[in-house]
Design brief:
about 525 residues; mainly alpha; Sodium/glucose cotransporter; two-stranded antiparallel sheet; about 70% helix; about 0% strand; globular
Length: about 525
């Protein structure tokens, strides 16, 4: 596009955006009537009655995995860091192997014993109330920054759409509040059913809009090779890095971040919640297997973080914002640069696709938080809590958690908001030994699992703060920070979550070995937690 200034054509963009948003809202509320069930219980409200088929599981996992993180945060990271930002792309080649290996087994165990949440699984398999409560709280807490990441994505869309207006800040705030009030409304009413229908709508929009945007953007620069050959340097790359390669001293940091991200996908409470909501093991495997197709268009879309440097109109828009914010605008700026003049209605489709791409996962995550709070925290202290009482707590708390996430948005600059994910993932992967090891063997001891988790969680927090010099906002989850490691010539910088998990595993293995040698295990019998209607 030859023009150097973008003035969004709101006469066309806004009506199309609002119209499609209304369709999204309608689908969300209509979810309560889809495959009707008694939504007064968590099993029906928070898990859609366990009736998701292969088709709906495919869309739900797609909406769940490929969120504003993949659509906005990763292009922002690539735009800012260059090749090092692709660590968030390479995990997509690994995550499917992890999920297909362990999630079907987890589903089978849940069916056999009536588990509804990851907390139920932990308590049922270990017999430990403490472990269940700890990881329920970890899951609830870790999902708050993940929801915050989605909020920053929504903000990026609204900022781009209202760019140039004198009252744009007020419009952005109103738009954000309205979106979350509506989201809380249909989540409260329809639960996972509404989120599932919304995910189908979201995924269709994202597929159509991103593929078209990628095709036109790549065509404008002469193809994939030219996209890199003529790119300028990243906005703030580590020393010795560009869009093609990164400094070899950061290889361990890159690899551990990639591995930690992949492991987190089988640890997130909402991913496990959606696993349990699937109708059969076969449907689950099909849904997981098909979800890999999302990786292809999203990899290409992430490369728009490179192409945007060659687009004069998009760069003009980005240059109007500080470095701490401009990265999150890469995809919206490209959409406006390519379509605002020739097809503003399609620019609106791209923007609404990205917008609901943040709303749907936020709903799914909040549902999982509500389920955990009701069943694995409150019910532990109020064992006589009825299914309706559980559902009531889950519904109201899911609404509260969405708005709580608004309060942590300021902790990380929008350009670096991919760090919301890495920060939260560093904590959820500490549940790997407790959730999965016990599925395959009872050799591991609860005391060692609890001690390992405590050390892993504390280490992840400490090294995150240390990497950022104990100051906010956070801009890295690599310790030592890339700049510090490169200045010292050290190749040992690594993801903070990997440091925590390594310490966690060491304590779990050594502690279990010592306890098994000195204190014979007493048999633990835990009654299955079978919910009404399952």
């Amino acid at each position: 596009m030859a023009a150097s200034t973008i003035v969004p054509n709101l006469n066309v963009i806004l009506p199309v955006f609002i119209g499609l948003f209304v369709v999204f809202i309608a689908l969300g509320f209509l979810g309560s009537r889809w495959r009707k069930g008694d939504l007064s219980g968590i099993f029906e409200w928070g898990m859609a009655g366990g009736r998701l088929g292969a088709f709906t599981a495919f869309f739900l996992f797609g909406a769940d995995w490929y969120t504003a993180f993949s659509i906005l945060s990763v292009p922002s990271s690539i735009f800012t860091l260059g090749a090092f930002g692709y660590m968030a792309v390479t995990y997509q080649a690994m995550v499917f192997a992890f999920t297909i290996l362990v999630l079907p087994r987890l589903w089978t165990k849940a069916q056999e014993k009536g588990y509804l949440t990851v907390g139920d699984t932990i308590k049922g398999e270990t017999g430990s109330r403490a472990l269940s409560i700890v990881f329920a709280l970890v899951g609830i807490g870790a999902l708050i920054p993940y929801i915050a990441l989605q909020i920053v994505g929504l903000q990026g869309v609204l900022v781009a759409m209202f760019y140039g207006l004198g009252n744009s800040t007020e419009l952005q705030e109103i738009g954000l509040v309205v979106a979350f009030v509506v989201l809380a409304g249909f989540t409260f009413t329809s639960g996972l059913r509404g989120a599932t229908l919304g995910s189908i709508f979201k995924d269709i929009l994202v597929w159509i809009s991103l593929l078209a945007l990628v095709a036109i953007a790549f065509g404008a620069v002469g193809g994939f090779g030219n996209a890199f050959a003529h790119a300028t340097k990243p906005a703030a790359p580590p020393a010795g890095s560009n869009f093609i390669s990164f400094n070899p001293l950061l290889s361990i940091a890159f690899s551990t971040s990639m591995l930690g991200t992949a492991l987190s996908y089988v640890s997130w409470p909402h991913n496990i919640n959606n696993t349990y909501a699937t109708q059969s093991r076969k449907n689950l495997k099909i849904g997981l297997s098909l979800a890999i197709f999302y990786a292809i268009p999203l990899f290409l879309a992430d490369t728009l973080g490179v192409i945007v440097t060659q687009n004069a109109a998009a760069n003009s828009l980005l240059s109007s914002f500080p470095a701490s914010f401009k990265g999150i605008l890469v995809i919206p700026a490209m959409a406006l640069a390519e379509f605002n003049g020739s097809a503003p209605w399609f620019a609106a489709i791209v923007l609404i696709g990205v917008f609901v791409g943040g709303l749907v996962p936020a709903a799914i995550m909040a549902i999982a938080q509500g389920n955990l709070l009701a069943r694995n925290v409150v019910k532990e202290f109020k064992p006589n809590l009825t299914p309706k009482g559980e559902s009531r707590i889950a519904k109201w708390s899911s609404a509260v958690f969405k708005f709580t996430a608004l309060g942590v948005v300021f902790l990380i600059p929008p350009t670096y908001n991919v760090q919301f994910y890495y920060f939260a993932a560093a904590f959820v992967i500490q549940g790997i030994p407790t959730i999965y090891f016990v599925l395959f063997t009872k050799w591991f001891r609860n005391e060692a699992l609890l001690a390992g988790a405590a050390v892993g969680l504390a280490a992840s927090l400490y090294f995150t703060l240390a990497a950022n010099k104990f100051a906010f906002p956070l801009t890295t989850t690599i310790y030592p920070a890339p700049g510090v490691a490169l200045a010292a010539g050290s190749p040992f910088a690594m993801y903070v979550g990997a440091i925590g998990l390594a310490l966690n595993l060491a304590i779990v293995i050594v502690g279990s070995a010592i306890m098994n040698a000195t204190r014979p295990r007493r048999p633990v019998v835990t009654p299955a937690q079978v919910p009404t209607g399952r």
